[in-house]
């Protein structure tokens, strides 16, 4: 047994599971629409104009300072919204448990963090490769028809992994099981797809839904890894992965059963009609990578993911250097709380300016907020700085997902969002590695050099591509 459970931080190991925030792909098609009001402004999902903020604001209620939750109550007034949200939440918490549970299980039973990290990295690589492919299948065939068989394959792979670990199978068998249990469509992505469908004629409601989903992501990645750690250390090593597998299967099946809010799959007719949608899109069957605007977002999210991955590693190392290693998870949870607060407020306020401008402003705020972390000299200064840094996360992610929605043909939203999500995923892995190298070679107090550098690169990518982004949006 490896006696290092106290040193394990949920956020440090969730980089092995895949991205934190990060909202993956959306769905497509025309689902049930919210009732339109006489002052609604008719905008498509994939166009952007200099005054789109005013149009979006006009299409939704302007919340008063005393009623910031009113837009969120309006979201759940749609029949079936609460049902698919709660069903998806079960599986999304499970997804956030997998990385930590896998690392702890293998490291504890096999007494090797190197093996645990390698197996987890293999699963991460397969997820990055299969994500866009599964997104395309969801677009073509529908959420239930793809998610149910995919989660069945996952269940077989996870069961095989548990048996191999428990009965001491060779190391190569663990890698095979990791490959077999890595191709599950993201419930967070499909939840966003449903919001996009039920509010397809209401940009303000879609903005609020994006904000709500970002907050849900943060909550899941605070609660899930902590639950996995407790199960693995207090029950038995395989308990975290076993519980996550059960919850993921149950959550996916419950989500797939909510058929009335499921976006219809793309048909040949909609694929043809969607091929010209969006000036920055590449058509129904071409490569989405041909969109200059989408490439800008992917590159920016690659650097943004590096911010997330390196900041988590740097925070764990820095807090331990202060002599408060057991507080690492709480400190990182405070950073996520800052993102939650900002996301809730951002989603309730009326939208101002274009989506491209909001995205650039969010990335700039993220870069600025990372700099003061270099001057932290104790827990009392680090925690508020991390809270402020976290507040820049949600608006950046929300604006970025809005851009992807507009840059991608409506018949390929799942694929488009997963493509961007893959960039975030790769960035998190690279950022975690860069953060670890920085801590090892420059010391824990220099650890925040890595996220500050990554944030500067994200700003450079967003600012340098701002012109192409606006031209792609039209």
UniProtKB/TrEMBL annotation:
Pfam families: MFS_1. Residues 1-64, 261-288 are annotated as: Disordered. Residues 293-474 form the Major facilitator superfamily (MFS) profile domain. InterPro entries: MFS, MFS_dom, MFS_trans_sf. Residues 37-52 have a biased composition (Basic and acidic residues). It is found in: Cell membrane. It is a multi-pass membrane protein. The chain crosses the membrane at residues 75-107, 113-134, 146-169, 226-256, 296-319, 325-347, 359-379, 385-407, 419-439, 445-466. The keyword Isomerase does not apply. Keywords: Membrane, Transmembrane, Transmembrane helix. This is MFS transporter. The lineage of its organism: Bacteria, Bacillati, Actinomycetota, Actinomycetes, Kitasatosporales.
